């Protein structure tokens, strides 16, 4: 048998060297692609973390703003007795209790403390004092059946 010089050990060695070179280039490209992907993922992760922080900050600002607005609304509702009830007490006293048109004293948001016992402290939204009568008012923004007097 005669050997073709192209098919000899040198040719196999050369083919193997070419294969190794191509394989190494392929691996190098794959490593570069992996490194690019890793950098892209790190950038994406940083961007997502920054976005999350911005979202958290915006939510906290929104929450603070809502709390402030709820506080303002609660304060405004807290002036219900001052704004609507107190100015009408003299009319109610005159119509239903035969009091003079003007009380001797008309006070909104009063607290009366007779002892150190906190259970004996009384707070009234409006107090109207007349010569022979005292009218006390406690205003509720929500009516509760158990607080109504003469409910039957």
Describe what is shown at a glance.
With 152 residues, the protein is α+β, with helices and mostly antiparallel strands. The model has no long low-confidence stretch (mean pLDDT 84).
Give me some keywords for this one:
3 helices, 152 residues, three-stranded antiparallel beta sheet, 3 strands, rod-shaped, alpha+beta
Task: Return the string of H and E elements.
Answer: HHHEEE
Mean pLDDT figure: 84
Report the strand count. Answer: 3
Portion of residues within helices: 55-70%
Low-confidence stretches: none
**How many helix segments?**
3
Q: What is the overall silhouette?
A: rod-shaped
- Oligomeric organization of the protein chains: single chain
Sequence of strands across the biggest β-sheet: 1-2-3
Strand content: 5-15%
Secondary structure layout:
Blueprint lengths: L8 H70 L1 H6 L3 H9 L7 E8 L9 E8 L4 E4 L15
Antiparallel strand pairs: 1-2, 2-3
Your description of this structure?
It is a single chain. This protein has 152 residues and is an alpha+beta fold. The protein is built from three helices and three strands. The chain has helices at 9-78, 80-85, 89-97, and strands at residues 105-112, 122-129, 134-137. The chain has a three-stranded antiparallel beta sheet. It is rod-shaped, with a radius of gyration of 44 Å. The protein starts with 8 loop residues before the first helix and ends in a 15-residue tail after the last strand.
